[in-house]
Every structure is written in structure tokens, then in C-alpha cells.
Amino acid sequence: MIVRKLFELWKYVEGLHQISVTCKDLLAKHDTMVSECLTAHYDEFFNLYENLLTSANYVTRRQSLRASKFPYNEALHFRSSVLKVMMTLLKKDSSKTIQMSAFHIFKVFVANPNKPREVKVILAKSHEKLLELLHNLSPGKGIVFLAVYLLVSSTLALD
């Protein structure tokens, strides 16, 4: 299956920038093919994607977080397992860059008005810890980030 081969290739050559760019281009520029493939192999695709997100290799994690901008990102935000990975990256990753990338994916889970029940339950159970975690997250660059940070924090407090 092409999806499995793509992930194997990505993981195998995780340090080679050009190969990862080629893989990302394939995913980003072929919406119809990606959509059909995801429909046919949804669980397998996201299980492989979650493996990349939790890789011990920084470059693999970073490139995988960047991949959230691809056409399948809407489906991504309905997977409670991906939410858990983002929460773990926010809390435990030693890289501020990874933490901030995870925050930008995490915020979509929080802001989604059509959250699946499982996502709502996870956010409700964890909201106090998440608020503390967000408070300790270094709110970096500018007013836009601060506004997003406040929106996410207030939404968590209300949920």
C-alpha cells in the first residue's frame, strides 16, 4: 500500500530534507488522491502518522507536525489519539519549537465547535492541568499569539 511505503520512506530517510519535502509535496498537491487513500486507509494512515509524531528523532517529529497543514488536517482534529499526542508534546517535549507547533494543532481541537464526544471528555478531564500547562508555555511572539492563547485558555475554562 502506498501510504505505508510513504511512511516507511519518510522514517527511513528522516534526516534527508529533500525526501521529506517530496513526501510533503505529494500529500499537499494531490488532494483527490490523498482523500481517496485516506478514505480507504484512515486508521492505518493515522496510526502511522502518530508513530511519526512520537518518534525519538526531532526532525521526524518536527516534519510530522508541519504535515498537519495538509488536506487531511480536518480529519486529524477529530482523532482523540492525536489530541493526546499533542498534549504530551506540549507537556514533555524539550523543544520549544515542537511545543509551539503542538500548541497550534491543539488549539484547533479546543476551538472546534463540532468536537467528538471523546475529545470533549479528554479536554474536560484535563482542563485544569491544560490551563496550568498553557500558563507555563512561554507566550512568545506578539499580540496575535497572545489573543489565540487567551481564546484557548478561556475556551478550556468554559468547557
UniProtKB/TrEMBL annotation:
Transmembrane segments: none annotated. GO terms for molecular function: protein serine/threonine kinase activator activity. Belongs to the Mo25 family. This is Uncharacterized protein. GO terms for biological process: intracellular signal transduction. InterPro entries: ARM-like (IPR011989), ARM-type_fold (IPR016024), Mo25 (IPR013878). It comes from the Eukaryota. It comes from Lithocarpus litseifolius.
